[in-house]
Design a protein that fits this description.
Blueprint lengths: L19 E4 L18 H17 L4 E3 L4 E7 L5 E2 H7 L5 E2 L5 H12 L9 E9 L4 E3 L12 E4 L4 E2 L18 E5 L5 E5 L1 E2 L1 E6 L13 H6 L2 E6 L11 E6 L6 E5 L3 E2 L5 E8 L5 E8 L4 E6 L8 E6 L8 E5 L2 E2 L1 E7 L3 E5 L10 E5 L2 E2 L1 E9 L4 E7 H5 L12 E3 L6 H9 L10 E3 L3 E3 L4 E4 L2 E3 L19 E4 L4 E4 L8 E6 L5 E2 L2 E5 L6 E6 L8 E4 L2 E5 L5 E5 L7 E7 L2 E11 L3 E5 L10 E6 L8 E5 L2 E10 L3 E5 L6 E9 L2 E9 L4 E6 L9 E6 L8 E5 L2 E8 L3 E5 L12 E6 L2 E2 L3 E2 L4 E2 L11 E4 L9 E4 L2 E5 L8 E6 L7 E7 L7 E6 L5 E6 L5 E7 L10 E4 L2 E3 L2 E3 L6 E4 L7 E6 ...
InterPro entries: Dictyostelium_Tiger, EGF, Ig-like_fold, Ig_E-set, IPT_dom
Pfam family, one: TIG
Protein name: EGF-like domain-containing protein
């Protein structure tokens, strides 16, 4: 027995994971399985047997379905028209009312259970399923499926089937009434909701346990990725990592596998799942797995067959080849996915009169649908017919994922009314009465909803019904196109729900956008329509509609508020997203110098990018000429000189004001104090910056004593120390205050440093000042000690010798002695050469030497040497500035030493080559032939090695590179090398010395030009021009031609280097008029322009003319039928031909050739006297036959030859080497001639030749002479047919009879020739007569039968 198990499934959702549970209802074990795995006990089996036997006696015969091993029986209820409770009783346990949950089970029941009943069932049959009118859910209430956590079959929430629903999509959808499911055998075995029936379908078998959970959810079908959990009888659940194989029931080649419990992929169709339970014994468990049915939720009506018809729903799969679609019974072809699983398009050959029903079949599984929505284009909305009861419990509000659904207030346009009627939204006649959402306002005499007036159609506005009140309810009659008051609420079946409507935005504005733009604003947009809808916000989008209704809008740069209109599917709504910009905000203001020499820089946010929109005031005074320093964040402006703190600073962008900040001018800075180390304390001079110009604003203190201000400028203050405070000013602290802004302190030390000379590092450092003491005196320069020369120490200065000179140019000199409270530190700057660079000029005569610490070349010059060669001819513009030196002739690249500095230093200097001139053939090179030549390159610094390392030398000429060997380098000033062929002019020439990290090239001051091309002649052969000349170069891609368009150019360069041939292929239809012909090579045009005309060319005639003359096709190039064509025969005679029908590209024309023979010449001449001769011929003679007869009167052998093209005069005929005489030409196709020699023929074969003019026949003819004639008794000759041709008076095969020849009787031959055809004709006539007789007899027989039957029917 083949074991199968059956899967049922339902909807189940969790917050994070969506899992799939399969209930194995029946398990059949392999032979030899353990008893513990038995499905039924002996008692259960016995009861089942008795029940089945009883049912088979009382009712229809039980039928077993091999797929799940279940037994199905049709049972007649005790009383016809019984309720569902009686059906449940009739299917006694362990049987139950049948649970139909997949299309395969349904097909089996229809074809093998209901169809085999005798008599046939013509009423309704109960199957499991009850409607809960509170929840709107149709559920399984019997069998194993009823034990599921959520045994849903169909729900009104979204009108979708979650198991298998065979409801007629037009007339019998589930109602929100307390009824049960029946199979309606009166209506093609569809499902129907009904409270009574005559029969019940019972099912037995399946797992009757209690551990069952929810199966597949609808989202699994669309998305895939759900985990399969099998709930089975004890011991049959697969272990982890078991492989489960799924095989498609309709297509067994379609299989897939999972490793339990990994997720099942998305798909469609019905499958048998199979896995093994390890043994011993090994048990194979099989179960049925069916993906959820396709579901059609809405469609887009079309107006022409050129428009794609769009269908939207769920569970369409991912393979368009597995989908079939019918619309109103018509196949919809060319199916394509718009959204995987959810939306498809197809094309209809004709516009349907009705769109209903719409059927989508996926892998053989038909779709379900419930109250289709139809897209209402003009309002971007969907209309849905919904049962009135659904409104009270808020069903359908999530239909199709649309954000809102509300009753249509009323029908407001004829277009909307036509849409309702033509698109079959309403499925039953009583559903064409649609309740409306409006109320009647007697005071306004108008229809209203929430005080909004609606212009409803279908009633008389001028004469409304006086009985209407504010509580009157209304409906719309679709067929009658009338809006009427409801008198019987139970008669109104439908409410029209409108999905979509005006979108809402959250937020509706963005009040603080950055002027830089780029704010990503999350916006929630509701009522965005349908699955395929798109949303556009301003100029951004369209965005595909998403279920969470969230979209991201990026603000634009700007400063003025703007609106971003919202449109759905390209149609504008009345909603706008409003963007406003944040006010400019200042975070800091720079401290400008007091002299106003620098701009004020303001930093902040939201300044935008246009400085012309910005105004700044500081203390009420404009800060002029604003400039954007950094877009949106920084602006500068020019402000007046001043000092101290100024407030407020205000920035305005357009008309929007910023916050306020103060601005402080820069604080005063002291850089030096003069006169303090002398006795002149009455005029202390302080230098620095930001002192202002107002004396009253400035105060100076020396330590704590004031210094009376004498004068103030921006950079200088003079003041006097009061008499009581004069004294030693050394080590005093000075501060300057300007309008409350205080400088950093400056300590006065009367110190100075003597300059030191280059080259003498032993010269002591001399420190000059005042107040020095010898006791404990120490000096450091940087970190090195400076050794005090004791004898030099005085109060005004001393000398010291540094242990080591620091390696930095600026060092701190620190001085202290025993009584000094704080060490004195001064900065000492000295000169030391620490780097150098060499910059060689273009002609190699000078070098600029730059570096730190070159000192004063005029007084203490540095010494620069390359070995023993010194560079001394130098000038210096400023102390420590660069040196400009003359390069000695003997200098080469080398390691240079720089002396007479604090420390001797070495540097590598690599000379760059210098190119000055080019020489060719002993003269200065002007141009070089394009085939190249030996060139001398003159200059200097052509070094084969530099600083001990070999250079790779190359010469570049434009893009050409020449590698130079050492043998090419004659000296450091001359290179001789063969320059290869090339083209172009003013090509830059460089000498390159290549060495790792030290590549050098000569400046591009020398150029080379190749010689311009020169044309000596041009001719054409066929459609190819041959151009003769010089300096064409070897680069075909560098050549262009003037005068003709070209398709191909090739160049031949001959070995003598002087001659070039240029082959130019031009189009057949090139101009036949004279042209100015020239060529250009790499931009250089030939200096001569030829006035050139194409010569016409003849290449063939087809076919060759026959000797009798013919019109032939003359083929060639550059011909016109108006050109003169002359035909000259080999005998010297000429004739002018008539030619016509020249083609458009001048390559062919028809010419009439007169009769003639032999060879001839055609000469064509154009109007420019260009001629061309072409030699051709008539067709050669052709032999087709030859015979010999003996002329008894002339005693000659007559040769008769047949064939073609023998000419217009008798040709020469030869038989072997014998010339045939008296040749006669008969009509051009037959020749006769005589051979007088009676001893002819010779033994063996005789070959016949014909020669017309100079043309010999194209073939030869062999005459076979028979050898069986014998001697013909000496009275005849042997003819070509093998018989004797007898002399006169003789006859017989051997001419051995004399007298009159007896005539042979041929009478019987004649008789036979006449009678035989007559016999054949007579036989054919008899056959035809027989066949006509049979046909007439058959016709009479059937006619008689037909009329007899016809007569009986009419009597």
């Amino acid at each position: 027995m083949t074991p199968f198990n059956y899967l049922c499934y339902q909807r189940e959702k969790s917050k994070k994971n969506r899992d799939l549970t399969v209930v194995v209802k029946t398990s059949v074990f392999k032979e030899g399985s353990q008893k513990d795995y038995a499905m039924f006990s002996k008692e259960n089996l016995f009861i089942t047997f008795i029940l089945v036997l009883l049912l088979s006696v009382l009712n229809g015969a039980p039928v077993t379905w091999d797929t799940n091993s279940h037994v199905y029986t049709v049972v007649q209820l005790t009383t016809p028209g019984s309720a569902y409770a009686d059906a449940v009783t009739q299917c006694a346990s362990p049987a139950y009312v049948a649970t139909v949950s997949n299309v395969d089970e349904w097909k089996f029941i229809v074809e093998h259970v209901l169809a085999v009943e005798d008599p046939a069932i013509t009423t309704q049959v109960f199957i499991a399923g009850s409607m809960n009118i509170t929840s709107g859910i149709l559920s399984y209430d019997q069998g194993p499926e009823s034990k599921l956590d959520n045994p849903t079959i169909f729900t009104h929430v979204n009108g979708q089937c979650f198991g298998f629903c065979n409801f007629d999509p037009i007339t019998a959808q589930p109602q929100l009434t307390a009824e049960n499911v029946v199979i309606d055998s009166t209506s093609s075995n569809t499902w129907k909701m009904q409270s009574t029936a005559d029969y019940v379908l019972c099912e037995s078998g399946g797992y009757d346990g209690t551990t069952v959970t929810a199966p597949v959810t609808e989202s699994y079908i669309a998305e895939g990725g759900q985990t399969l959990t099998l709930v089975t009888p004890d011991g049959q659940e697969p272990v982890v990592s078991t492989t489960i194989t799924f095989t498609n029931i309709q297509n067994p080649t379609d299989t897939f596998q999972i490793v339990y419990p990994t997720p099942i992929p998305a798909g469609s169709g019905s499958y048998i799942g199979s896995y093994d339970i390890p043994g011993p014994p090994i048990i194979t468990v099989n179960f049925m797995f069916t993906y959820q049915q396709p579901y059609v939720s809405s469609y887009y009506p079309i107006s022409s067959t050129n428009t794609l018809f769009t269908i939207v729903g769920q569970n369409f799969g991912e393979d368009n080849s597995a989908i079939a679609v019918t619309v109103g019974g018509q196949a919809c072809a060319t199916i394509e996915f718009l959204v995987s699983q959810q939306a498809i398009s197809c094309s209809l050959a004709t516009l349907p009169t009705s769109y209903s029903p719409i059927q989508v079949t996926v892998n053989g599984i038909p779709s379900t649908t419930s109250r289709l929505s139809v897209y209402y284009v003009n309002q971007n909305q969907f209309l849905l017919n919904s049962y009135q009861a659904e409104l009270s419990t808020n069903y359908s509000t999530q239909k199709l994922g649309l954000q809102t659904a509300y009753p249509v207030p009323c029908i407001t346009s004829t277009e909307q009314a036509a849409l309702l009627k033509s698109n079959n939204i309403n499925t039953q006649p009583n559903e064409l009465l649609i309740s409306l959402g409006v109320a009647w306002d007697p005071e306004k005499s108008a229809f209203v909803v929430d005080d909004v007036t609606y212009e409803c159609i279908g009633y008389d506005m001028e004469n409304p019904d006086p009985t209407w009140t504010s509580t009157t309810e209304f409906y719309y009659d679709v067929n009658a196109n009338k809006t009427l008051a409801i008198t019987d609420p139970l008669a109104i079946y439908s409410t029209l729900l409108l999905f979509g409507g005006v979108p809402t935005l959250d937020p509706s504005q963005w009040p603080s956008a950055s002027t830089a733009g780029g704010d990503n604003v999350p916006i929630t947009v509701s009522n965005t329509g349908f699955l395929l809808s798109t949303v556009t916000i301003g100029d951004q989008g369209p965005f595909p509609r998403n279920d969470n209704q969230s979209y991201t809008y990026t603000t634009k740069a700007g400063y003025l508020p703007y609106t971003a209109p919202v449109s759905i599917n390209g149609q504008a709504t009345n909603k706008n997203f409003i963007v406003s910009y944040a006010a400019p905000t200042m975070t800091s203001v720079s401290n400008p110098p007091t002299d106003g020499s620098e701009a004020v820089i303001i930093t902040g946010t939201n300044f935008f990018t246009d400085a012309s929109l910005i105004t700044v005031t500081i203390g009420g005074i404009p800060c002029t000429s604003p400039v954007m320093v950094a877009s949106n964040t920084q602006v500068s402006c020019t402000y007046i000189a001043g000092s101290g703190t100024v407030t407020p600073v205000v920035l305005k962008l357009g008309q929007v004001l910023s916050n306020e900040l103060p601005m402080e001018y820069a604080s005063p800075v002291i850089s030096d104090i003069k006169s303090a180390c002398t006795s002149d304390f009455d005029n202390v001079e302080i230098t620095g910056s930001n002192f202002g110009t107002v004396t009253a604003d400035v105060t100076v203190t020396i330590d704590t004593a004031p210094c009376t201000i004498n004068s103030v400028t921006q950079t200088t203050i003079t003041c006097s120390v009061p008499a009581g405070n004069k004294g030693d000013i050394t080590n005093k602290v000075v501060t300057v205050t300007v309008k409350g802004l205080v400088s950093e302190t400056f300590t006065i030390y009367c110190l100075d440093f003597a300059p030191m000379s280059f080259g003498n590092t032993n010269t002591p450092l001399e420190i000059i000042g005042s107040g020095f003491e010898a006791a404990g005196l120490t000096v450091t320069i940087g970190t090195a000690d400076c050794v005090i020369i004791d004898a030099s120490v005085t109060a005004n200065g001393f000398k010291c010798t540094p242990d080591t000179w620091p390696q930095t140019l600026t060092s701190a000199v620190t001085i202290t002695w025993t009584d000094l409270a704080n060490p004195i530190t001064k900065t000492f700057t000295y000169t030391q050469l620490d780097s150098i660079s060499f910059d060689q000029n273009d002609d190699g005569t000078q070098v600029t030497i730059d570096g730190n610490g070159l000192g004063d070349f005029a007084t203490t010059p540095v010494q620069i040497k390359a070995g023993s060669v010194s560079i001394t001819a130098c000038t210096q513009a400023s102390i420590d500035g660069p040196l400009v030196c003359t390069i000695p002739a003997s200098v080469v690249s080398a390691t240079y030493t720089v002396e007479n500095v604090i420390s001797s230093t070495t540097f590598d200097w690599y000379l760059s080559p210098v190119l000055t001139a080019l020489t060719f053939n002993g003269n200065a090179l002007t141009t070089l032939p394009t085939d190249g030549g030996n060139v001398e390159f003159s200059g200097k610094f052509f070094e084969t090695t530099s600083i001990g390392i070999a250079n790779n030398i190359t010469i570049t000429i434009g893009t050409y590179t020449i590698d130079i060997s050492e043998s090419n380098v004659t000296s450091s000033e001359l290179i001789e090398v063969h320059v290869p062929s090339g083209v172009g002019k003013n090509l830059a020439v460089n000498i390159n010395l290549l060495q790792t990290a030290h590549d050098r090239s000569s400046p591009q001051t020398v150029t080379l030009s190749y010689t311009a091309p020169k044309i000596t002649d041009v001719s054409n052969s066929n459609n190819v021009l041959t151009v003769f000349g010089t300096n064409f170069g070897d680069f075909e891609d560098q050549v262009t031609v003037t005068g003709y368009t070209t398709s191909k150019i090739t160049i031949d360069h001959y070995s003598d280097a002087a001659e070039y041939h240029l082959y130019v292929t031009i189009p057949n239809d090139s101009t036949l008029d004279p042209v100015d012909f020239s060529i250009t090579v790499a931009g250089q045009a030939s200096d001569d322009v030829l006035d050139f005309v194409l010569t016409p060319q003849l290449v063939s005639i087809t076919p060759l003319p026959t000797t009798s003359g013919a019109t032939v096709k003359v083929n060639g190039y550059f011909m016109k039928d108006s050109y003169a064509v002359t035909m000259k025969l080999s005998n010297g005679t000429s004739t002018t031909l008539t030619c016509t029908n020249g083609n458009t590209d001048n390559t062919a024309m028809d010419c009439k050739i007169p009769s003639g023979q032999g060879k001839f010449t055609l000469t064509i001449t154009n109007e420019h006297t260009k001629t061309f001769e072409y030699e051709t011929q008539y067709q050669s003679p052709t032999l087709t036959g030859a015979t010999i007869t003996y002329n008894q009167q002339t005693k000659k052998i007559l040769v008769t030859i047949t064939g073609q093209n023998f000419g217009i005069t008798p040709p020469v005929v030869k038989l072997n080497e014998t010339t045939c005489q008296e040749v006669q030409l008969i009509e051009g196709s037959t020749l006769t001639c005589n051979i007088p020699d009676i001893t002819f023929p010779p033994s063996g074969n005789t070959v016949v030749f014909v020669q017309s003019a100079e043309l010999q026949s194209s073939n030869q003819y062999d005459l076979q002479y028979p050898t069986s004639c014998g001697s013909c008794s000496g009275q005849g000759v042997c003819s070509t047919d093998g018989s004797c041709a007898c002399n006169l008076g003789f006859y017989g095969e051997q001419c051995d009879n004399t007298g009159e020849k007896k005539k042979e009787s041929n009478g019987w031959k004649i008789a036979l020739g006449i009678l035989l055809p007559l016999f054949v004709i007579a036989a054919l006539v008899a056959l035809v007569a027989y066949l006509r007789h049979r046909r007439r007899a058959s016709y009479n027989r059937y006619s008689k039968k037909y009329f007899m039957e016809f007569g009986n029917e009419n009597h």
